[in-house]
Amino acid sequence: MKTHTIFGGFWFFIITIILTLLQLCNGKVFMEYIGATGKPVTMDEVPIDDGIDFHFILSFAIDADASGNPQNGIFKPYWASSLTPESVAAVKSKHPNVKAMASLSGWSLDSTTLRWYQPENSQTWISNAFKSLKSIIQTYNLDGIDIDYENFPKHNESFSYCIGELITYLKNQSVISVATIAPYRLTTIPYVQLFAAYGGVIDYVNHQFYTDKVRTTEAYLEDFQLRTAQFDKEKVLPSYEIDGRGIQGEAFFDALHILEENGFDINGIMIYSADASASTNLTTKFYYEQKSQEFLLNSSRV
Ligand SMILES: *[C@@H]1O[C@H](CO)[C@@H](O)[C@H](O)[C@H]1NC(C)=O
Ligand SMILES: *[C@@H]1O[C@H](CO)[C@@H](O)[C@H](O)[C@H]1NC(C)=O
Ligand SMILES: *[C@@H]1O[C@H](CO)[C@@H](O)[C@H](O)[C@H]1NC(C)=O
Ligand SMILES: *[C@@H]1O[C@H](CO)[C@@H](O)[C@H](O)[C@H]1NC(C)=O
Predict the structure, then answer these.
(1) Of 126, 172, 174, 194, which is best to mutate to test ligand 2, by the most ligand atoms within 8 angstroms of its C-beta?
(2) CA torsion angle 248 250 255 261 (round to 10)
(3) May I ask the CATH class of domain 28-298?
(4) How far apart are CA 28 and CA 94, in angstroms?
(5) Where do transmembrane segments lie in this chain (predicted)?
(6) pTM of the model
(7) pLDDT by residue for the chain (302 residues), tens digit each?
C-alpha cells in the first residue's frame, strides 16, 4: 500500500512535469519593454496572464559610461532605478511564467546617440560583454538578452560576429535561456546578416513594425509578409507602440486576425512600452497589454 502511494506520487510528479513542459512549448509569448524613460515604472502594475510566457525587457544595458563613451564591451544597466533585483525576484515569484531580459543599447543615453562600433579586438569585446552581462544577469535574476542596436557605421561586419558569438556563449554556458533581436525599418540589413549566421540561437524577432509607416490592416499584412520572409516565419512577432507610430487602436487587433486568416501563426506579441502605458490617463490603462494576452490565449485554443 505504502509503495503504491509513493509510486502514484512519483507518476503524478512526472505527469505534472510533462504537462508543464507541454504548456511551455505550446505557450504564446508576450514581450514588453520597460524602463527606458527612467520614470519610476514598476512591473507590479502591468497585467500578467498566467497562461502566457511573459517577458519583461529591461531597457537598457549599455556598453558605455554615464557620458555615453564606449567601454569596449563592458555593459552597465541604465534602466529605471525602480526596476531593482528585488522587484524582478518579487514579480517572478508571484508569477512563475514571467521571464526578464536585458535589452542591449537602445537609441540613446541622455543626449548621446548610441551606435555599434567595430571593436579593436573582437575577442576582447566578446569576453568583456560576456563577463559584464553575466554579472548583471545574475544580480537581477534575468533569463535572456534582447539586441537593440539602432545605429550602425558603414563597415559593420563585426556586429554579426560579436553579437552572434556573445549570444552563443551566453547560451552554451547556461547564463541565458532566451535571446531576441529588435530590428527596425532602417536596420534590417545588419540584423538579417546576424540572423542568417546565428538564427539557431535567436528565439524571437521583435521587429519594430511601428517604424514601418504602416497604419492600415492591409498594409500591416503586406509588411508582415515582408518581415517574415526576411527572418523566420515562426519567430517574427507582430508589435505595437503605445500612443505611438504605426497602426493604432483596435485596428491592431483587426490586423492580428487578418494575419491569422492569411495562414500566419501568431506565436507572440511585442509591445513598446510599459512606460508609455503607465503614463496614459485613460481608464483603459494597460488595455493593449491585457487584450494582446487575451488574443494570444484565444488563438492558442483553436
Ligand atoms: C552595415 O549596415 C548597413 C545598414 O545599417 C548596411 O547598409 C551595410 O550594407 C552594412 N555593411 C556591411 C559591410 O555589412
Ligand atoms: C560556446 O560558445 C563559444 C562562442 O561561440 C565557443 O567559443 C565555445 O567553444 C562554446 N563552448 C561550448 C562548450 O560549446
Ligand atoms: C492626459 O491628460 C492631459 C491633460 O488633460 C492631456 O494634455 C494629455 O494629452 C493626456 N495624455 C494622454 C496620454 O491621454
Ligand atoms: C477572445 O474570445 C472571446 C470569446 O470568444 C471573445 O469574446 C473576445 O473578444 C476574444 N478576445 C480577443 C482579443 O480576440
Answers:
(1) 172
(2) 180
(3) alpha beta
(4) 19
(5) 6-25
(6) 0.89
(7) 444 554 555 555 555 555 555 555 458 999 999 999 999 999 999 999 999 999 999 999 999 999 999 999 999 999 999 999 999 999 999 999 999 999 999 999 999 999 999 999 999 999 999 999 999 999 999 999 999 999 999 876 799 999 999 999 999 999 999 999 999 999 999 999 999 999 999 999 999 999 999 999 999 999 999 999 999 999 999 999 999 999 999 999 999 999 999 999 999 999 999 999 999 977 789 999 999 999 999 998 75
